[in-house]
Amino acid sequence: MSVDALLLKRANAKCELCGSDEGLAAYDVPPITLKSLDKSVLVCSNCLGQIENPETMEPNHWRCLNDTMWSETAAIQVMSWRLLNQLKGEGWPDELLEMLYIEDDIKKWAMAGERVVDGPTLDSNGVAFAVGDTAIMIKDVFITGMNITAKRGMTVKNISLTDTDRSIEGNLNGTRVVLGAKTVKKV
Q1: What domain count does the chain have?
Q2: What is the pTM of this model?
Q3: Are strands 155-161 and 135-137 parallel, antiparallel or unpaired?
Q4: Is the residue at 126 inside a domain?
Q5: What is the pLDDT of residue 114?
Q6: Cα angle vertex 35, ends 135, 41, to 5°?
């Protein structure tokens, strides 16, 4: 059974964050190296849009996290922590964060997704990357651990930003890889 089918079954065909059943899609919780049920959540189009574009977040939509944050699924706990952390200063998210208890390894995963750099991640031409962008390799790069070479001209899709402004994470031929931002250019 595929990861998407297992997610639908686990979530009872509803968004695991807000409970909606419209426009469902799997979301791989970064940082991720290999797509798996344990590292994914099923989200609706509204939640996905706000996760990928934090500037469009509607704080009242995320009041559902009051219930969601108590899930036994680690990926859902991570997303709840991250979203509440992004909403700090609204009042109610601060209170929920104080109540939320997650295991140390899960909290470490949740914090791994937080960017601690202030500057944007720039491509080889100085253009800033955003989550979900697509880029093209500008030179051949050997990928350690996979024993492959990413060739010039290959497409890197669905970019996410890492905890440093010098690298990006994206899908290269169906595999999630981390690359130096200066080895690609934004499409």
Answers
A1: 2
A2: 0.61
A3: antiparallel
A4: no
A5: 63
A6: 100
